[in-house]
Write a structure and sequence with these properties.
The complex is a heterodimer.
Chain A (H helix, E strand, L loop, with lengths): L2 H15 L4 E2 H8 L3 H13 L3 E3 L5 E4 L1 H11 L3 H17 L3 E7 L2 E8 L12 E5 L3 H9 L5 H11 L7 H14 L2 E4 L6 E10 L2 E14 L9 H17 L23
Helix pairs in contact in A: 1-3, 2-3, 5-9, 6-8
Chain B lengths: L1 H24 L10 H8 L3 H13 L3 E3 L6 E3 L2 H4 L10 H16 L2 E8 L2 E8 L14 E3 L4 H7 L4 H11 L17 H14 L2 E5 L6 E9 L5 E10 L5 H22 L14
Antiparallel strand pairs in B: 1-2, 3-4, 3-8, 4-5, 6-7, 7-8
Helix pairs in contact in B: 1-3, 2-3, 5-9, 6-8
Classes of the chains: A alpha+beta, B alpha+beta.
Chain lengths: ~270, ~280
C-alpha cells in the first residue's frame, strides 16, 4: 500500500474538514509529517486539482476537482433532484432555509438545501451533519428506522467513542417523534423557538428527512402552527412519489452494513 | 550519489501518489460503478497499479465496493470534504436579477414559478407600486391546467406528459371556483395555450375576471434539452399594461432575458413526475 498516497489523502482530509485555509507547517505539525514531505504531498494534490492555494497565499483549500467529485456523488442520490422543487416550495412558504438529509450508515448527511427568503436565514454547508442522534433531521430519520436501531447505533457509537445521549433519554425522544410524526430542535438564536424536521417515510422505513431550519415552531407547543398541515402535505406528496417510483429514492450506500461506515473526523 | 537515489525514491513516491489521485479523479462524471480493467484502460496503467490505487482509495473511504462487490463507486468520504463552492444550483438566485431588471423595465409585478409535483408554485415575486396584480399565498400550489401562468409551464412538457397530466387532472373543472380565470375551459383551450407558448416562446393573456382586468406575459426558462426550470411572468393592470404596451416592451423584455436563457441551459432542469397527488 502506498504510504505517500495515504499521506496525501490524510492531508486532503485535514484541509477538507478545516474551517480555514491551512499552511504546510501547520499541516505537517498536525499530522506529524515533516514539512518537506507535506509540501511534496500538497504539490501532488495541487497538480491533481484536489487542493488549490487560497488567494495565491501559501495556505491551501480544497480544489475544483474535489467539488466535481462531490457533485458526481450527489448526483447518485436521485432523491436530491426529486426533492429540490419541494424544498424550494417549502422555503418560499416558510421563509426559512429548507434542507434534505439522508442517512449514510449511522450518520445524517445534508445533501440538498433551498435558501430561505426571510431577511435572516441560516444556511449550513452541505455534507455530514453528525450521527443520527444529532439534530432534528437525523433524529427524524432514526425514529422511523427498524425497531432496535437506536440500540444498535448506541453500541456502534460506543465502539468508536462517539458521544450520543443516554439511551433512555434518546429513546424517550424518539417515541415522542414517532407519536408526533416530526422532530423539533431548539433554535440556537431564538428563545423557546424550534425548527422542524419531517421524515420521508416509504416502503415501511425511512432514510431521509426534510427540515425547515429556521425557528418556525413554538418549542412548548410544536403541534400548533397554521402551516403545519401544508408542510406535512408537501412531504406527503414526496412520500407518494417514493411509493410509486421507489428507484428514485434508492440509497447508493444502502448495500453497506451501517456499522462499517465511519467518518473518523466527525464526532 | 545518495542524493540522487533519494530524489529517485521521492519521484517514485510522487508518481504513486499521482496515480492514486488520478484514479480518484477518473470517477468524476461517472454515475455508475467502474471496474479495475476499465480504470486501467482509461488511465493507461497496468491492472496491478490500478488495483493498488483502488485499494488505497477504498481503505480511506474515498471509494467503496458496489453492491456486486466487484466494482467500485465513489465513497462516502467524499461527502465530508467541503469544497466551499455552492453545491446547489438555485433557480431562484439565478433568476432574481432578471426579475428585478424586468420590474425596472416595465414597472409591473414580476413572478417566478416552478413545477412542483403536478402544480405550479410561485417561489419569488416583485410587486409593482400603486395598483398591482396580486398572486395569492406564498408557496400555494396551482394545478398545471389552471391559470395561463401554469399553462406556460405545462407547455414545456412533452405531448405525452401533457396528455398524462390532462387524464389524471380530469375533470378539469374541479378547481373552477378557485381559479375563475380559466373556469369552464376544456382540454382544447389548454392545448391552444400550449401551442401559443411553443410557437412564440411566450404567452400573452388577459384576465377579465380580475377587477378592471389585468394582462400578463410569461416566458418559460428552459434547460439545454428544453425541459422547464421555471416561468417568468410580468403582469399589470390592463389600463397600464395593455396589448400596445406589452407589444412595445416585448423586444426589450426578450433581450433582457437572453442571458438568463443562456445560463439556464448550463444546468439540468429537475425531473417532473406526473404521478403522485395533484
Amino acid at each position: 500500500m502506498s504510504s505517500s498516497a495515504q499521506r496525501a489523502l490524510r492531508i486532503l482530509e485535514a484541509i477538507g474538514v478545516a474551517d480555514r485555509p491551512l499552511g504546510v507547517t501547520e499541516l505537517g505539525r498536525n499530522l506529524a509529517i515533516p514539512a518537506g514531505t507535506a509540501f511534496r504531498s500538497l504539490d501532488a494534490l495541487e497538480r491533481g486539482g484536489l487542493v488549490s492555494r487560497f488567494q495565491s497565499s501559501p495556505r491551501y483549500v480544497l480544489g475544483p476537482t474535489l467539488n466535481r467529485l462531490r457533485h458526481t456523488l450527489f448526483a447518485q442520490f436521485p432523491i436530491r433532484d426529486v426533492c429540490t422543487p419541494y424544498l424550494r416550495q417549502l422555503a418560499f412558504a416558510s421563509g426559512e432555509t429548507t434542507s434534505l438529509t439522508v442517512a449514510v450508515g449511522w450518520y445524517g448527511v445534508r445533501i440538498a438545501a433551498a435558501p430561505g427568503v426571510n431577511e435572516v436565514t441560516s444556511s449550513p454547508p452541505l455534507g455530514v451533519a453528525g450521527t443520527l442522534a444529532t439534530g432534528g433531521a437525523c433524529r427524524a430519520i432514526l425514529a422511523f428506522l427498524a425497531d432496535g436501531s437506536a440500540a444498535r447505533m448506541a453500541t456502534w457509537a460506543q465502539k468508536h467513542a462517539l458521544p450520543i445521549p443516554a439511551a433512555h433519554r434518546l429513546e424517550a425522544e424518539l417515541v415522542t417523534i414517532r407519536q408526533r410524526g416530526f422532530a423539533v430542535e431548539a433554535a440556537p438564536f431564538a428563545a423557546r423557538r424550534a425548527s422542524i424536521a419531517l421524515p420521508i417515510r416509504a416502503g415501511g422505513g425511512t432514510h431521509a428527512a426534510i427540515a425547515i431550519e429556521g425557528p418556525v415552531l413554538d418549542l412548548d407547543n410544536p403541534r400548533y402552527h397554521d402551516d403545519l398541515g401544508r408542510w406535512t402535505e408537501i412531504v406527503a406528496a414526496i412520500e407518494d412519489l417514493a411509493r410509486i417510483h421507489p428507484a428514485l429514492f434508492a440509497d447508493p450506500f444502502g448495500h453497506l452494513e451501517r456499522d462499517t461506515v465511519v467518518f473518523d473526523d466527525i464526532r | 550519489m545518495a542524493n540522487t537515489a533519494q530524489l529517485a525514491r521521492t519521484a517514485y513516491r510522487n508518481q504513486a501518489t499521482q496515480r492514486v489521485l488520478s484514479v480518484l479523479s477518473a470517477f468524476i462524471g461517472h454515475h455508475g460503478a467502474r471496474g479495475v480493467t476499465e480504470i486501467a484502460r482509461a488511465l493507461s496503467m497496468n491492472k496491478n497499479m490500478a488495483h493498488r490505487a483502488l485499494t488505497v482509495l477504498t481503505h480511506r473511504g474515498y471509494l467503496t465496493r458496489d453492491a456486486s462487490g466487484e466494482r467500485y463507486q465513489l465513497g462516502y468520504r467524499v461527502l465530508v470534504l467541503d469544497g466551499g463552492e455552492a453545491d446547489n444550483f438555485d433557480i431562484a438566485a439565478l433568476c432574481r436579477p432578471y426579475l428585478e431588471a424586468l420590474h425596472g423595465l416595465t414597472g409591473e409585478s414580476v413572478f417566478l414559478s416552478i413545477i412542483v409535483g403536478r402544480s405550479r408554485v410561485n417561489i419569488d415575486w416583485i410587486e409593482a407600486r400603486g395598483r398591482r396584480v396580486s398572486n395569492g399565498q406564498r408557496g400555494r400550489s396551482v394545478p398545471l391546467h389552471c391559470t395561463r401562468m401554469s399553462r406556460a409551464l405545462l407547455a414545456c412538457l412533452s405531448d405525452a406528459e401533457v396528455e398524462d397530466y390532462l387524464r389524471i387532472a380530469a375533470p378539469l373543472n374541479r378547481y373552477d371556483a378557485l381559479f375563475p380565470a380559466t373556469a369552464n375551459e376544456t382540454a382544447e383551450h389548454v392545448w391552444a395555450d400550449i401551442r401559443q407558448v411553443r410557437r412564440n416562446g411566450h404567452l400573452i393573456w388577459r384576465n377579465p375576471q380580475q377587477q378592471y382586468g389585468a394582462a400578463y406575459v410569461a416566458f418559460p426558462v428552459l434547460d439545454s434539452v428544453h425541459r422547464p426550470h421555471a416561468v417568468v411572468t410580468v403582469g399589470g393592470p390592463f389600463e397600464r399594461f395593455g396589448p400596445d404596451r406589452i407589444g412595445a416592451l416585448l423586444p426589450g423584455m426578450r433581450t433582457l432575458l437572453d442571458p438568463l436563457h443562456r445560463q439556464s441551459k448550463l444546468f439540468p432542469a429537475p425531473p417532473v413526475f406526473m404521478s403522485g397527488t395533484l
